[in-house]
Design a protein that fits this description.
The complex is a heterodimer. Chain A is α+β, with helices and mostly antiparallel strands. Chain A is 36% helix and 18% strand. In chain A, helix 8 crosses helix 15. Chain A is globular, with a radius of gyration of 20 Å. Chain B is 53% helix and 0% strand. The chains are: A alpha+beta, B mainly alpha. The interface between A and B is medium-sized, with 12 and 13 residues. Chain B: It holds the Pfam family PP-binding.
């Protein structure tokens, strides 16, 4: 029997909203989550903007011990996982066999804020001043560990670490694990909290971030004047569930996950292959697995980081994979124009946007896109959201290390 | 009147380890109120900062009373 996989729950905390639905509504409305950095004093830094999560109160959500003993990225993941479990209904007693519930939640850089603080303690106070919680708070798998503890998920667990492709890989791998029978539901997504000095300095010096200090124009994916990405933070966790399991308990179905592609550029540590062959193959793999017809109406939530190289090569990859006609017909947008680049969390937010676009028949915009670039000549939905009657959607993610991950979703139209 | 060592140690345990709602006496067993070995090390380190002392990294007080005596012993030196 062919097992199908659907999304039955969503949890998110993002720079544009502190729940999944609040975040989605903000994306449709074109709300920008980018502002001047408040997390630390940026004097001496060339970068001064980021997309921060607002009004996050971890003590209220998690209590003091869990706040003190978890890095901010894990705090985000725990809050998002609570929302995802609740919205799916899987938090109800007996809703799922714990051994059939998995956790695939990753992070790009893990507890980098914890690392920074403890390195300072070590250098200033000596080795004995380093917290016993340093290692468990810092390691990038701990969001998955803590989420499994919190929800007593005893099934497969796989904290993916593929930089900016992390949570797209997590969703893709979770889809396959359910499809091939290893679990009935998996909490899949990613989390990130990297708006800390050493991280902003490092991303600045590898020339990934924009130094534009104006929050309104800093992130402008596919625009001729784009010059780098804006760091975001937050978490997004989706509940992927086997269709029959979801139907049997009367779950609300947002959309179906039906294809996954995963390739490497094997080219350079931070620059995409200029021929775009890696992302091209990833898209082709995901489309082939989905069985979707490329002539049908499609929404692509692009990686669209607002760097010179990404947006150009990604556009090339979309055309090479789908053909010029389908590429030009597709509705495309980069929601990073509003959320910033949430690194390991970004793919899950963007898969959520695809699912909600299919559910609500609307495509969120790319804001900040004002001046077209000859190398980026597709329909990127500039400025405002548009109605959408297509049946499928795709989220593309490309990560440092040359990781390419693509998931394909389709509108859920009943059995 | 200055706070006793007991009061200051209890304040650290309550503040850092989420024991706000737990009544702590000299006889309270730390493991029984949920302090694992890592949390105990963390509380020991916080006491080093609070009292300006250096506690043996291998010290492993089992009760609140043992914890207070450990600190008082070092303060008396």
């Amino acid at each position: 029997m062919d097992r199908r996989v659907v999304i039955t729950g969503m949890g998110a905390i993002t720079p544009v909203g502190n729940t999944a639905e609040e975040s989605w509504d903000a994306l449709v409305a074109g709300k920008c989550g980018i502002g001047t950095i408040t997390a630390f004093d940026t004097t001496g830094f060339r970068v001064s903007v980021a997309a921060e999560v607002k009004d996050f109160d971890p003590v209220a959500a998690l209590g003091k011990p869990d706040t003190l003993h978890n890095d901010r990225n894990v705090q985000f993941a725990l809050v998002a996982s609570d929302e995802a479990m609740k919205s799916s209904g899987l938090d109800a007693e007996g809703a799922i066999d714990p051994e059939r519930l998995g956790v695939y939640v990753g992070s790009g850089v893990g507890g980098i804020g914890t690392t920074e603080a403890q390195v300072t303690r070590c250098n200033e106070g000596g080795a004995r001043k380093v917290s016993p919680f340093f290692v468990p708070m810092m390691i990038a798998n701990m969001a998955a560990g803590q989420v499994s503890i919190r929800h007593h998920a005893l099934g497969p667990t796989l904290p993916v670490v593929t930089a900016c492709a992390t949570s797209t890989n997590a969703i893709g791998e979770a889809y396959r694990a359910i499809r091939y029978g290893y679990a009935d539901a998996i909490l899949a997504g990613g989390t990130e909290a990297a708006i800390v000095p050493v991280s902003i300095a490092g991303f600045t010096n590898c020339r990934a971030l924009t130094t534009n200090p104006d929050p309104a124009t800093a992130c402008r994916p596919f625009d001729a004047n784009r010059d780098g990405f804006v760091m975001g933070e937050g978490a997004c966790i989706l509940v992927l569930e086997e269709l029959e399991h979801a139907l049997a308990r009367g779950a609300n179905i947002v959309a179906e996950v039906c294809g996954y592609g995963n390739t490497a550029d094997a080219y350079h540590i931070t620059s995409p292959d200029p021929t775009a062959c890696g992302i091209t193959r990833a898209i082709k793999q995901a489309v082939a697995e989905s069985g979707m017809d490329t002539d049908e109406g499609l929404y692509i939530n692009a990686h669209g980081t607002s760097t010179k190289l990404n947006d150009k090569t990604e556009t090339m990859g979309i055309k090479q994979a789908l053909g010029e006609k389908a590429a030009h017909a597709a509705h495309i947008s980069s929601t990073k124009s509003m959320t910033g680049h949430m690194l390991g969390a970004t793919g899950a937010v963007e898969a959520m946007a695809c699912a909600c676009a299919l559910r609500d028949s609307v495509v969120p915009p790319t804001i900040g896109l004002a001046e077209p670039d000859a190398d980026c000549d597709l329909d990127y939905t500039p400025g405002h959201s548009v109605p959408f009657d297509g049946r499928w959607a795709m989220s593309t993610s490309l990560g440092f290390g040359g990781h390419n991950a693509v998931v394909v979703l389709r509108r859920y139209e009943g059995e | 009147m200055a706070e006793s060592t007991f009061d200051r140690v209890v304040a650290i345990l309550k503040d850092q380890e989420g024991l706000d709602d737990v009544e702590l006496t000299r006889d309270t067993n730390l493991a029984e109120v949920g302090l694992d070995s890592m949390a105990t090390v963390e509380a020991v380190m916080a006491c080093e900062d609070e009292f300006g002392i250096e506690i043996d990294p291998e010290a492993n007080p089992k009760t609140v009373g043992e914890f207070v005596d450990l600190v008082d012993g070092l303060l008396a030196k």
